[in-house]
Design goal:
Distance between the termini: 74 Å
Strand order of the largest sheet: 1-3-2
Helix content: 25-40%
Number of strands: 5
Largest sheet: 3 strands, antiparallel
Order of helices and strands: HEHHEEHEE
Number of helices: 4
Shape: flat
């Protein structure tokens, strides 16, 4: 079993100084995000295929820089803006929305009969026209 030792003021100060040094070291060695990405890196970053990135370049949606022959670079900020700009709100009405399937209840003389329809309708209950409630 592990023994636990009571925290002393000296050990608390020591831990605080170690944590501060670790934070300083992490800040000093942190690499800033790369601004320009290769086609493969851009595809990995955006979770797309290399061909999709090349199609976006071909359509003019992304600008590719060619600093040397055979090397294409894509600006990460432009890729971010393209992704964020293409986000559309979810449709809640209009042509693209299909009605939900619901069960419609039809009262009958032998009991209640249900049928699934492609159109959203209110669930109807109650007695049929010839019956008393």
């Amino acid at each position: 079993m592990h023994e636990t030792f009571p925290a002393t003021p000296d050990s608390t100060d020591l831990l605080a100084s170690i944590l501060q040094r670790l934070d300083d070291l992490a800040k000093a060695t942190a690499v800033p995000p790369q601004r320009f990405l290769s086609v493969r890196s851009a595809a990995s970053y955006a979770d797309l295929s290399d061909d999709s990135i090349r199609r976006l370049i071909e359509r003019g949606d992304l600008v590719a820089y060619r600093p040397v022959r055979g090397k294409l670079l894509i600006d990460r900020q432009q890729l971010d803006n393209l992704i964020l700009g293409s986000a559309r709100p979810r449709l809640t009405a209009g042509r693209g929305i299909r009605p939900r399937r619901v069960a419609v209840v039809f009262p009958s003389s032998s009991g209640v009969r249900e049928r699934s329809t492609g159109v959203a309708k209110q669930r109807t209950t109650g007695a049929s026209p010839g019956q008393e409630a």
